[in-house]
Amino acid sequence: MPCLDYRAFVNACRDERGVGHHTLRAYAQDLRTFARFTEAHHLSDPLSKDDILAYHRHLRDELCAKPATIERRLVTLKSYYAWREDRNSALPSPFTDVRISVRIPRRLPRPINRGTLKAVLQTDEGRIALRAKTGADDAAPVSQNAVTILIIKLLIVTGLRISELTNLKIGDVSHDACQILVNGKGGKERIVFVPNRELQEELRHFLEARYAQGGSSAPLFLNTEGRRLRSATFRKRLRALSRRLGIEPHLTPHRFRHSAATLLIEEGIDIRMIQALLGHASLRTTEIYVRVSNHALRRALEHADVLGVLRN
Questions:
Q1: For the whole model, what pTM was predicted?
Q2: CATH number at residue 61
């Protein structure tokens, strides 16, 4: 059976390329899946092109994996063997002559409609109470519902990934709460802005209370046990909120990210600015929101009014 040194590969991706935690976990999972396949089929090094094609058929026909999953697992495997060959040229990659095309259906993002967003923002405890004076002695506890709505507001105006937001430290937010330093995918830093004056005030008061409790290096958002809020915990909160408000399909952090991009497109913001805000490496990733925004298209066509132009 081939020796898959996937731990060394994952560590190299983390240390040399700065690959994020979730991607590293996916790499390990992908390579463990392939290791099970090689064991079940009694494969041994050196693997051949036919072995890779057989694994592709196994993923497609036996595991009935989705096209995106198949593509990811093959890409991971190809990267692993390229890394291994780079370390030892006596171990050639079996992907040298392999050409596999996986057709992935293009799925449009599903932003949350404006009516639902308004309903969410108008829920009880939707705003953190502002105090005339904030300090360590008078910092009253903030309800988890109010914090949840604050996070939702930030997701809507910044388009942050939920992992980016839950990883924020108090010191990542400016003192006036107008901008946030974000550590994004691949360790790339970017600045996002909080443009709404009311939200700035709300965030600033929350920030002052948290600073009094934990200092600048503490997590910005905590769970009920006083530890850093995790993405999975926030997703559970959104599911509970969806049930309470009767929202179907249920709210997810990424749908708020889609909504942020779509709303900005509809308001006429340049797509390259939205790309910078979302932290997309490629403009092609951002361009999909142009297709989604029928509202913006309708407004643009009404403004153009070509028949009116022809009549004059």
A1: 0.68
A2: 1.10.150
